[in-house]
């Protein structure tokens, strides 16, 4: 071991209680940062996956003009076949074609303008959680031709139930007249009031027939294996559709821009709390090292009188601080990773969350995200801050004069 590290280690344990208290403060701070940052990241992943799984998906293939002007004429040709091709890509977890239009739906007593979504029933549950929120009847299938799945609030408004008939009147592609009689086969409660009030679902083949879409669809919803692979999935889909210049592949940030803003706002508020916690620990290290410098003034004075340069004493001080910070870092990483690993496996339960999770078809526990960034980001900031905290004691040491120091002045 180099001489400077040997001296730093010896000096560090001159006051064992003070050293252990400082290490404990740093380790506790590191544990809190590891767990809270990982839990926060895990909650973001859960929130994004759950929000995107309701309808939009991680990605969508659309006509290049559909996002800004969602009209029936801006559709995707041979959408069902294209969705089948995209499902074969290794970076695509699931894909389902959809048709979207608006129509007037009427029961025997009431009418309501609603969004009509045509879905590939056999694939829709792989990109959307709505099929899992069924509260009555059954979901769409080949056994339910011209069947309709409706939200519970819309069913209440139209005063319909399973088996009721609903008349659909609307406009198809190129102004064609759209009309049909549909039978309610299922009622869903997605937990999203606006969606349950304004959207109904029918089979995509029925949608194409009613609205004269022939072989066209409005968009193809795609689910990536994970949020971290969205860019890879998008690149693969872009390559697969590059022969059709009229198509765009849009990611979730473009489709639902409000989600990213909400996350960034929450991160900003959390950073303030983390910064305060780190500053408290940094001041603890500053106090520890400043006391060490003041207590050893006479010792430093003798060393300076013997010709030891100020820079070597400052180097010794920073070596002590680095060893102190490393001990706090190692202990914090060990304990924090163990705690994080436990909750990443078993999840964090919040009282009252089960009912809400069941209502929204969501998991009842949040799992912290185990990732090098979430594990190391906080402790490394504490380590760097601790080294910076030694700057003020180092400045005091640099201004130390041999004569005054030897007399304790």
Overall geometry comes to elongated
- The overall pLDDT average reads 88
> Which structural class matches the secondary elements?
alpha+beta
What does the radius of gyration come to? Answer: 32 Å
Distance between the termini: 34 Å
Q: Given the structure, what is the number of helices?
A: 16
Q: Give the strand order, joined by hyphens, for the main sheet.
A: 2-3-8-5-7-6
Largest sheet, if any?
6 strands, mixed, barrel
How many domains would you count in the coordinates? Answer: 2
Strand content: 15-25%
Low-confidence stretches: none
Helical percentage: 40-55%
Give an account of the 3D structure.
The chain is an alpha+beta fold. The protein has helices at about 5-10, 15-55, 80-85, 120-125, 150-160, 195-200, 205-210, 230-240, 250-255, 255-295, 295-305, 310-345, 355-360, 370-390, 390-400, 400-405; strands spanning about 60-65, 95-105, 110-120, 135, 145-150, 165-170, 175-190, 200-205, 220-225, 245-250, 350, 365. A 6-stranded mixed β-barrel has the order 2-3-8-5-7-6. A two-stranded antiparallel sheet has the order 11-12.
Q: What is the fold's blueprint, element by element?
A:
Elements: H1 3-12, H2 16-54, E1 59-63, H3 79-86, E2 94-106, E3 111-119, H4 121-124, E4 134-137, E5 147-151, H5 152-158, E6 165-171, E7 177-188, H6 193-198, E8 199-203, H7 204-210, E9 219-223, H8 230-240, E10 247-251, H9 252-255, H10 257-295, H11 297-305, H12 310-346, E11 348-349, H13 353-359, E12 365-366, H14 372-389, H15 391-398, H16 402-406
Parallel strand pairs: 3-8, 5-7
Antiparallel strand pairs: 1-9, 1-10, 2-3, 2-6, 2-9, 4-7, 5-8, 6-7, 11-12
Helix pairs in contact: 1-12, 2-10, 2-12, 2-14, 10-14, 10-15, 12-14, 12-15
């Amino acid at each position: 071991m180099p001489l400077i590290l040997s001296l730093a280690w010896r000096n560090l344990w001159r006051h064992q209680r003070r050293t252990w208290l400082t290490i404990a403060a740093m380790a506790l701070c590191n544990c809190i940062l590891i767990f809270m940052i990982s839990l926060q990241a895990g909650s973001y992943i859960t929130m994004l996956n759950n929000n995107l799984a309701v309808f939009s998906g991680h990605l969508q293939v659309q006509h290049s003009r559909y996002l800004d002007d969602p009209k029936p004429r801006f559709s995707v040709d041979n959408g069902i076949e294209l969705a089948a091709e995209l499902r074969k890509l290794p970076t695509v977890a699931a894909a389902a074609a959809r048709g979207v239009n608006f129509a007037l739906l009427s029961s025997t007593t009431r009418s309501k303008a609603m969004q009509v979504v045509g879905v590939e029933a056999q694939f829709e549950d792989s990109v959307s959680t709505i099929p899992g929120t069924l509260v009555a009847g059954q979901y769409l299938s080949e056994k339910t031709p011209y069947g309709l799945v409706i939200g519970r609030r819309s069913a209440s408004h139209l005063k319909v139930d399973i088996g009721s008939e609903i008349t659909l009147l609307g406009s198809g592609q190129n102004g064609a007249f759209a009309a049909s009689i549909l039978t309610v086969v299922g009622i869903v409660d997605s937990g999203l009031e606006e969606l349950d009030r304004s959207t109904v679902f029918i089979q995509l083949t029925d949608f194409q027939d009613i609205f004269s879409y022939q072989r066209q669809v409005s968009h193809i919803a795609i689910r990536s294996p994970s949020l971290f692979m969205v860019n890879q999935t998008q690149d693969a889909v872009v390559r697969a559709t590059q022969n059709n210049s009229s198509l765009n592949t849009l990611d979730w940030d473009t489709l639902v821009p409000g989600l990213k803003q909400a996350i960034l706002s929450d991160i900003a508020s959390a950073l303030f709390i983390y910064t305060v916690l780190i500053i408290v620990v940094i001041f603890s290290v500053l106090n520890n090292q400043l006391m060490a410098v003041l207590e050893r003034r006479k010792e430093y004075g003798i060393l300076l009188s013997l010709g030891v340069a100020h820079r070597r004493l400052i180097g010794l001080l920073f070596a002590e601080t680095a060893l102190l910070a490393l001990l706090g870092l190692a202990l914090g990483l060990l304990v924090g990773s163990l705690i994080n690993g436990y909750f990443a496996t078993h999840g964090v339960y919040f009282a009252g969350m089960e009912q809400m999770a069941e209502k929204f078809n969501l998991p009842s526990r949040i799992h912290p995200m185990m990732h090098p960034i979430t594990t190391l980001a906080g402790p490394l900031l504490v380590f760097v801050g601790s080294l910076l905290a030694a700057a003020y004691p180092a400045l005091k040491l640099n201004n130390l004069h041999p004569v005054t120091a030897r007399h304790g002045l």
